[in-house]
């Protein structure tokens, strides 16, 4: 097991921790972090403007909801067999190959002239989530259990550094203030091509450089229905705390996805350009990164529940403030 973090538990994590502990990153952890830096950078260049792209090629709020729902449904369902496949055939191959295969879904986005073509593209993109159980297992194997809070904070926030200003860069690349939805379709397709290249590169890096720490098990062949029955049985037999977390997580994701995919559409509709919205997303990313590092230290110091509950409560306030913030920025920009 790779011990990457040994810190005093009574101190929070300063930003200098990144440079201090980078030299000790190695093996699977280094491969995951390096590939995530590439992946997150190209994704953050385009993801804030994907919803607007759907509208620009003829979609509506309903069609956006259909695409998102289908993608999330497949993403959720394939995670159950994903854990079984990883144990049987090895984590490395599953993680690398699923990313490579899913990357070709962006070809539909590049050549789409109607929102209908985005549906198969979105479903192919969901294939990458087949490897989520395997990826999380490798993360767990790569962090010292005594410092897991800080360790996961590093793993989840370090790749975001390179991508901090990717939304702003993407906004500059796709902006077209004369278009109905503020984006240039040719430039959007060019950025989607960059995303395709970045995702394929990520997949090949993981396929060739990750190592299977645990040898694949010789498991009996089981049908998909048996896998889901085992998963349901596991949930039923789990501790009450796990059941509460599952219920809370499901409710939280439902609330989050009610507006997550339409925020950009709302921002453009009230008068912001993609450049202005890109800067808002980038600034938000900076705050999120710093908060992630701090919360990782607080978890180890004060306990998970004592940090988790107030953190979730605070999530509701930005949604109440967002319409007023965007409107204020729009009015200020137009006045100056």
- Radius of gyration computed on alpha carbons: 21 Å
Distance between the termini: 56 Å
Query: Beta-strand level of the residues, as a percent range?
Result: under 5%
What's the name of the CATH homologous superfamily? MFS general substrate transporter like domains
The domain count comes to 1
CATH architecture heading: Up-down Bundle
Highest CATH level, the class: Mainly Alpha
Uncertain parts? 1-24, 323-336
**CATH fold node name:** Growth Hormone, Chain: A
Inertia-based shape:
globular
The number of distinct β-strands equals 0
Average pLDDT figure: 77
Produce the secondary structure layout.
Elements: H1 17-21, H2 27-46, H3 50-56, H4 61-77, H5 79-89, H6 91-103, H7 106-111, H8 118-125, H9 132-141, H10 148-157, H11 166-174, H12 185-209, H13 224-237, H14 240-259, H15 263-269, H16 274-302, H17 304-314, H18 316-335
Give a structural overview:
The protein is mainly α and about 325 residues long. The protein has one domain: Growth Hormone, Chain: A, CATH 1.20.1250. The chain has 18 helices and no strands. The longest helix is centred in the last third of the chain and has 29 residues. The radius of gyration is 21 Å and the shape is globular. The N terminus and C terminus are likely disordered.
Compose a concise summary of this entry.
This protein has 336 residues and is mainly α. Helix content is 72%, strand content 0%. Residues 1-24 and 323-336 have low confidence and may be disordered.
Key structural traits:
mainly alpha, globular, Growth Hormone, Chain: A, disordered C terminus, disordered N terminus, 336 residues
